[in-house]
Amino acid sequence: MSPTNLPGNATMTEHTMKAFDVDLQELQRLVVEMGGIAEQQIADAVDALNTRDVVLAQRVVSSDATLDALQRELEEKAVLTIARRQPMATDLREIIGALRVSNDLERIGDLAKNIAKRVVALGREFRYPTVMRGVESMSELVLAALKDVLDAFARRDTEQALRVWRGDEAIDAVNNSLFRELLTYMMEDPRNITFCTHLLFCAKNIERMGDHATNIAETVHYMVEGKTLSDERPKGDFTSTTTVPYPG
Amino acid sequence: MSPTNLPGNATMTEHTMKAFDVDLQELQRLVVEMGGIAEQQIADAVDALNTRDVVLAQRVVSSDATLDALQRELEEKAVLTIARRQPMATDLREIIGALRVSNDLERIGDLAKNIAKRVVALGREFRYPTVMRGVESMSELVLAALKDVLDAFARRDTEQALRVWRGDEAIDAVNNSLFRELLTYMMEDPRNITFCTHLLFCAKNIERMGDHATNIAETVHYMVEGKTLSDERPKGDFTSTTTVPYPG
User: Fold this and answer.
1) CA distance B67 to B74
2) pLDDT tens string for chain A (248 positions)?
3) Domains in chain A and their CATH numbers?
4) What is the dihedral of CA A83, A87, A90, A95, to 10 degrees?
5) Distance of alpha carbon B219 from the chain centroid
6) What is the ipTM of this complex?
7) Which residues form the PhoU domain (chains A, B) (predicted)?
């Protein structure tokens, strides 16, 4: 039997494929929407931190619910697509990829929200412009990494994904130097302790956003190549094992 | 047509159902295995922290890979089950539930690993037994919550899940008082700063493990009831907005 003997069936397959493509596009659209919100959340949270803008900080906190809702929506759509279309191999990886990326974007939103919450605690103090510049430059690196990796996701560009993956070391390096700097300021003057503690957590949150960008890079690689990135990512975050001795 | 006219078909359905049950059991088994490892990782990490046992801490760090691998395995199996069996409604929720729980367990493992890494930084200092007791009692609450919620998951017991969900406030309360205590010690003597900073992060990690236990409680509710827990969980973690003024 040649395929021409089965026009009904052929149309059916075409129809199924088309419906599947529509489903995939919808998942892709949701990832792009979530990515845009996550980027905005990072920028706003760090902006609110730099300018001690409590109103902007509150907005970041309340916007997080949008990201959570989109993630649940994507999860539901992804699972229904798998159940309805029974995709295999590459197609299946496309859906799992969207699921994983949405998970990372949702977690980036949580971290931005946590930074925003700390803006209230920090009050109107403006100490140590160099530390704030460090936080800002770290967040710029993370924002660039996120933009690049979402771009790599959209174009299924493993080369660009790998560049983001390797670039995370630079973010970790800024976090390490910030960690030491903040501990030193705390030792210099105990009145800095509350302020610096909150900044330590903010810096850690930004560093973890970078980790999520590298997770997304790994997902892009998995979607295209069908396997996990084998060699361990060069780790550069040593703050968990860093100690700063008191000079006194 | 009565069903008896379709023995072949009926057998087919029975066969499919049986295969689906086997798949579900396998997912369940993986969740239970991951849960056991996650519990052990928490206990070992806090134990290593209390006794400054670097060897045990290293073991926690290296065991984390097992949890990651199991999570990937569960994800793969879940997706293949959805694609093969096209489950609907309750059956589909069973699979999504297993996926979500495995995600939370994997993140609990990451947090335990981060605590273990800090054991090395803390060295052999034994300061402030009251703080260490606070960390210990918080981790006991979290371990109990995790055991209870995994039990609720295994028995699909929404009542027990809700109890865990509501109990998270107690964990947050311990974390709040620890946060204040640690900041005060840092202000009292700058030589405590590095030590207390690492303990702050450890306490935060334990508090976040508690959040994952409440996530699992929400998943149990979703699996049984088919809808998300509507009222927001009472939040008791105020450390993001806590300030401790320097008394001097």
Assistant:
1) 10
2) 333 333 334 444 677 678 889 999 999 999 999 999 999 999 999 999 998 899 999 999 999 999 999 998 999 899 888 888 878 778 888 998 999 999 999 999 999 999 999 998 887 665 667 788 899 999 999 999 999 999 999 999 999 999 999 999 999 999 999 999 999 999 999 988 998 999 999 999 999 999 999 999 999 999 999 877 755 556 677 788 777 777 75
3) 7-241 (1.20.58.220)
4) -20
5) 12
6) 0.82
7) 32-119, 136-220
Contacts of B194 in chain A (CB under 8 A): 183, 243-246
How close, in Å, is residue A86 to chain B by CA atoms? 4
The radius of gyration of chain A from alpha carbons, rounded to an integer in Å, stands at 22
Looking up tokens 């609907």, which residue turns up? B88
How many helices and strands (H and E) does chain B possess?
6, 0
Q: What are phi and psi of A227, to 5 degrees?
A: -140, 165
Q: Contacts of residue A186 in chain B, CB cutoff 8 Å?
A: 186, 190, 193, 197
Residues on chain A touching B245 (C-beta within 8 angstroms) = 194
Which residue in A103, A186, A240 is closest to B117 by CB distance? A240
CB-based burial of residue B59 (10 Å sphere; 0-12 exposed, 13-18 middle, 19+ buried)? middle
Give residue ranges of A with CB < 8 Å to any B CB: 72, 75, 79, 82-84, 86-88, 92, 95-96, 103, 114, 117-118, 120-121, 123, 183, 186-187, 190-191, 193-194, 197-198, 200-201, 204, 228, 240-246, 248
